[in-house]
Amino acid sequence: MISFSLDGKRALVTGANTGIGQAIAVGLAQAGAHVIAAGRSSCAETVRLTGGTELRIDFADPMAARDAFVDPVDILVNNAGIIRRADSVDFTEADWDAVMDVNLKAVFFTCQAFAKAAFARGAGGRIINIASLLSFQGGIRVPSYTASKHGVAGLTKLLANEWAARGINVNAVAPGYIETNNTDALRADPDRSAAILDRIPAGRWGQASDIAGAAVFLASPASAYIHGAVLNVDGGWLAR
User: Which mean pLDDT values do the consecutive 10-residue runs of the chain (240 residues) have?
Assistant: First the structure.
């Protein structure tokens, strides 16, 4: 029997204070998981919605999660991320490093810490990384974000190759254009917003809740034989 239940599982979701991270946390809780909402800002609202617990952690330090898995965690969702926008000719080293540290370096070392803890207790688990349409496309004016999200897709496949046989499923979700803080600047630009909307076959910007179902699926027994996949949740954007 196919099961989507997460009863008895413990899930750590990074960047869970708002947007996609919060929606994923709520979805996992609705499927039965105990959710640990991790973020540099207060996750009190997410804790209220999920009945879970909070972990204050700032992934500007890529090693920040080194001690986050002392208590067993079955599911890791690497959602925390930042973005910086500027023409590539003007882009600064500081903005490059800040984005790469949070979006890629921290993802790797958080995955590593999760896997070390799982292997030490003889367990498997699920890792779900949050990629992007810019894991496949170039975009404009977001060089470090694009590089980091290409890296997340590649890292997801590499870790799946190494850890699938050891019981950890590593996959990613690539959200399309979702109404979150990261897309405020795009939605505030009438021409850019209209051009984006015109290309989306579904005819609308996505909602953060649209990502939750994909995350629950990849966290559940229903996806047991899925390793190294990057699942697009984009309203059909990449199909056009």
Answer: 93 97 98 97 98 97 97 98 96 98 98 98 98 96 97 98 98 95 84 92 95 98 98 96
Longest distance between any two alpha carbons in the chain, whole Å:
55
Residue 182 lies in a domain: yes
Q: Which residue in 59, 69, 114, 145 is the catalytic one?
A: 145
Domain annotation covers residue 4: no
What CATH number did the domain enclosing 48 receive?
3.40.50.720
Domain count, the chain: 1
pTM over 0.90: yes
Give the residue numbers spanning the domain of 88. 10-232
70/206 Cα distance (integer angstroms): 36
Strand 75-78 relative to strand 10-14, pairing: parallel
- Based on the residue annotation, tell me whether 145 is a catalytic residue of this protein: yes
